[in-house]
Here is the input.
Amino acid sequence: MNTFVSAILLAAGESKRMGRPKLLLPFGSSTILEQSVDNLLNSSVAELILVVGCTAEQLLMKIANRPVKVAINRDYRRGMSASIKAGLDLVSDEAKGIMLALADQPFIDSYIINCLIEAFGIGNKGIVIPVYQGKRGHPVIFASKYKEKLLVVKDDVGGRQIIAEHPEDLFQMGIDSESVILDINTQRDYRALIAYSKR
Here is the structure.
């Protein structure tokens, strides 16, 4: 089943705890940002919207030749909600689902992304979220009917409030990969990530 899912990749943060732009850090033969972008481009998402804010120019240089839509979040200091709103402005009217993905999760490969899209397409739930050993992770898919609610979320709440308000419309998909709960906020996280990649 071919389900039109638009992916919004959130990459506008300031990397305060890292102390330098974390998405530009080396990962394999490229960077964390490039790997996260490529994982989505190699999946069955119908379009990819990259939301940048802090260090936008440097990030965009890295993905200049990739087929992505770019949203600039000039209010990136207001948290994730401002990035979600910026990305939603570019979502196609054809979209049946909106995937919210984090740019600092380069281990979430196209296979996992495709599994989530398939579950969304064949299921009857409006929210699909990956779960690893009982812990919820990312990316999350919201049916397009939730677009208006996503537009009014505030601060760094993201989609959590909507998930909490609609437990009856939630499908929690078990994923046998720690990648859906791993992200990078500190130097320690980055070192652990590199160690994880060498397993």
Remarks:
- The chain is about 30% helix and 20% strand.
- The chain has one domain: 5-197.
- The beta strands are 5-11, 26-27, 30-31, 47-52, 69-72, 97-102, 127-132, 135-136, 140-143, 170-174.
- The two ends are 34 Å apart (CA to CA).
